[in-house]
Amino acid sequence: MFDFGPFFDNIGEILDGFWATIRLAAAAAVLSLIIGTILASFRVSPVPVLRAFGTSYVNIVRNTPLTLVLLMCSLGLNDILALKFSDNSSTTYYWWAVLGLSAYTGAFVCETLRAGINTVPLGQAEAARSIGLTFFQSLRMIILPQAFRSIIAPMGSVLIAMIKNTTVAAAASYAEVALVTKTIVDKPSFASGVIPLFLGVAVGFLILTLPTGYFFGWLAKRMAVAR
Amino acid sequence: MSKGASVLFDVPGPRARARNTMLTVVMSLVFAAIFALLVWRLYDKGQFEEKLWTPFTEWKVWRGLLLPGLLNTLKAAALATVLALLFGAVFGLARLSDHWWIRIPAGAVVEFFRGIPLLILIFLAFFVPNKISPEIAESPLGQAQRLSVDYFFSIFGVESNAGVVTVPAFAAVVFGLTMYNGSVLAEVVRAGVLSIPKGQSEAAYSVGLRKNGVMRLVLLPQAVTVMMPAIVSQIVVLLKDTALGFIIAYGEFLQAGFKQVPANYHNNVLQAGIVVAIIYIAINMSLSRVATWLEARSRRSRKTSAKTLKAGGPPPVAGVGVTQQSI
């Protein structure tokens, strides 16, 4: 039962799966931070249209299951509306998975960032205005830098949740590690060794998530705004 | 609108008003253009044909597919909520134990189940018993396996046939949801109890209560008030995550609405997705309302001496620490 032989026979595929997961997570991390920051600035802006857009986006996306978001991207937008990134099916599914995951995570990034903006003392914004900065200047130079520093730890939680959510892309035809695991388990030749396989996958995820958590915890302490 | 928004800008003067109007017009045009492009694309691909939308107005479809799916979703969510609350209470309190041999294993279990993806947990419950049970049936543990399946796991629909244990998709989903959300709730319980000011337990000890009494009579009643919003918002997460049952073909709402309906009615994937999404959003938003209401109520409440745990936001993760989440 604890025979690691079959696990190491398939190690190549598993590592390919993890590499696919890492590529998806890295791209989604960058894109979701961008989307989230834009959404957060929409939600605090003086323009009602932008505020309404930000609020409805967050409410819609946050309350939809990620499985549905990713399936709508792959089956709906890519297959039916034929909005393809490339003719190569694995490339286009990869980018739709990145886009879907970022669109979903972006809503959470936005909410975290907004909570961070609320922690910036009132005096900071007032001082920024009193020296004549416009809304976007004060947001960019005064508010956001302080907000970002106060939300490093919760942002770490969002990113770790996102890393774990990459597995859902298995539903959207992207061959990351959960889909690879399922394929290996379904192989007729893979009779024993299912426990080592799941142990390996679990340890792989712990290797991805635990150091990320400790890194963000360390960073949060280091970058904390002293008030 | 948040309180933060209003501090960021003054009442606009003439120039700011002009700039805001211009931005409003420009951004409305941009959003309208994106929307129009999407509509045009939908029209171009024939997605406005009546036969693609009408299935959702037929009672037959609701009774035969959507409502049973919704029922399955709610069933899995309800059972998993109960079990996760139990798991969370037990492990959350175990992590607060004074005995290291309880505290450390409980911590390891909680961190493990929080650290790996829910889908992997569901796969674990779905695939592993089936593969390893024949081998266990041959071993000295075979009898124990047979008895535990017959007398306990059969409640969840697990079957044992000539030594091969089959876990139905329902039980796998419930297992995954329970373990993951239970671990998150364990952290919520721990944070809730830790958030009660130290004076409370000191006072309780000084009037002669024991550990058990301090926890049961003083700390937990106050902690529950503090934890309620966080618990309800975790239930929203749990409900949303039942959709992962789609991947192992559990007949829940997404499976019914997004797979069965398109399979039977002209592959209307987009239309089905929109309808299913609206229903999910309606359910989750009303649950979130409850969380917000509870949060407001608990803030006003004088039954507790601690600060309310936040309803929204991601669950704290390993290494980041619960106490730093106080934003």
Question: What's the structural blueprint in terms of helices and strands?
Answer:
The complex is a heterodimer of chains A (227) and B (327).
Chain A: H1 5-9, H2 11-43, H3 48-62, H4 66-80, H5 89-119, H6 122-130, H7 135-150, H8 152-165, H9 177-186, H10 194-223
Chain B: H1 3-8, H2 14-44, H3 50-53, H4 59-95, H5 100-115, H6 118-138, H7 142-151, E1 159-161, E2 164-166, H8 169-194, H9 198-206, H10 211-241, H11 253-264, H12 269-300
Antiparallel strand pairs in B: 1-2
Helix pairs in contact in B: 4-5, 4-8, 4-11, 5-8, 6-7, 6-8, 8-10, 9-10, 10-12, 11-12
Number of helices of chain A: 10
> What string gives the helices and strands of chain B in order?
HHHHHHHEEHHHHH
Mean pLDDT figure of chain A: 89
Low-confidence segments of chain A, given as residue ranges, are none
Helical coverage of chain B, percent range: over 70%
Distance between the termini of chain B: 18 Å
Number of DSSP strand runs of chain B: 2
Structural class of chain B: mainly alpha
Name the overall outline of chain B: flat
The radius of gyration computed from the alpha-carbon positions of chain A, rounded to a whole number of angstroms, is: 21 Å
Return the domain count of chain A.
1
